[in-house]
Design goal:
Layout: E1 3-10, H1 18-38, E2 43-51, E3 54-59, H2 63-76, E4 81-88, H3 105-119, E5 125-128, H4 133-149, H5 153-165, E6 168-169, H6 182-189, H7 193-198, E7 217-218, H8 219-223, H9 239-247, H10 251-260, H11 263-280
Parallel strand pairs: 4-5, 6-7
Antiparallel strand pairs: 1-3, 1-4, 2-3
Helix pairs in contact: 1-2, 1-6, 4-11, 5-9, 9-10
Length: about 280
């Protein structure tokens, strides 16, 4: 069985003020707690802070860490993070310990991957398994990053809300029972000065019941469908109306934002990456 290690750190964290750095780390820790609940079915060891501003965790498969990183990136934006995902063996097993106490080729490859990400400003996530698949997946996700970099704060907010209404989802790896806890994170986020000054603001009370309304996009259903993923898009019907209601703007404005910021293209690229990972990295 192949395992996957996720390593993440904050980009340019030393340039933040001490107050901002502390607030951001506290918020990231709260975000990790929620994400660890959502991804509990796929975690061997929770994603936790290891040293300084680096976090890491051990997963049963390679799909979940990509989904995990993707959601964390959206939630803590505009804080920039980079990520290395290593796919390999778990050889030193301290079963009563934490991820930081384990070892094996998956850990070594994750470390090598994040060191590559440190050197590449044009990409924020690297997969490493020492197979030919690495070239294809890293090329695909670098294209996604290029699109995402061009979005404004408001467009990223629209992307986040669409994700909360219609998450990319793998049943065996995620617990939708805990998905509504993201509302707690958004409420907490709105109270932090760094986010108030550098990012979007929203009235999170407007979507208290979002967890009862979401319509997940099942990755396996797409993978097992012989049609092109573009024949069944990742944007659910009526999503622009739901988002416009929360942001108190017109549906036409939201549809324009979705088109101009390539939200659907980004979701399709991410879905393609997830399907490729599922098909080629499970070992």
């Amino acid at each position: 069985m192949k395992y996957s290690v996720l390593m993440i750190d904050i980009v340019n964290s030393k340039k933040l003020s001490n107050v901002d750095r502390e607030d951001i780390q506290i918020f990231i820790k709260k975000s990790l707690n929620v994400l660890n609940e959502v991804f509990k079915p796929s975690l061997v060891f929770d994603v936790v802070f290891s040293a300084g501003d680096e976090v890491q965790g051990l997963f049963k498969n390679p799909v979940a860490p990509f989904l995990y990183f993707r959601l964390l990136r959206m939630i803590i934006d505009p804080v920039k993070i980079r990520c290395g995902i290593g796919i390999g063996d778990w050889e030193v097993k301290i079963k009563d310990g934490m991820s930081t106490e384990q070892d094996g080729s998956a850990y070594h490859l994750a470390r090598e991957a994040i060191e590559v990400a440190h050197k590449k400003s044009e990409i924020n996530i690297i997969f490493k398994s020492n197979t030919k698949n690495d070239y294809y997946i890293n090329s695909l996700i670098s294209a996604t990053y290029e699109f995402a970099q061009k979005q404004t704060n408001q467009q990223r907010l629209v992307s986040l809300l669409i994700e909360l209404f219609s998450p990319l989802y793998l049943e065996r790896d995620m617990s939708l029972d805990d998905f509504g806890k993201f509302i707690f994170l958004l409420k907490n986020r709105d109270s932090i000065d760094y986010f108030k000054l550098n990012s979007f603001t929203l009235d999170s009370s407007k979507f208290e019941n979002i967890s009862e309304e979401y319509n997940p996009i099942d990755i396996l259903e797409k993978l097992n469908n012989s049609e092109s993923i573009y024949d069944k898009p990742t944007m659910i019907k009526g999503i622009s109306f739901k988002v416009s209601d929360i942001l108190e703007t017109s549906r036409q404005n939201i549809e324009k934002s979705i088109k101009s910021s390539n939200v659907e293209i980004l979701r399709n690229l991410d879905l393609t990456a997830l399907m490729f990972i599922y098909d080629n990295y499970r070992g």
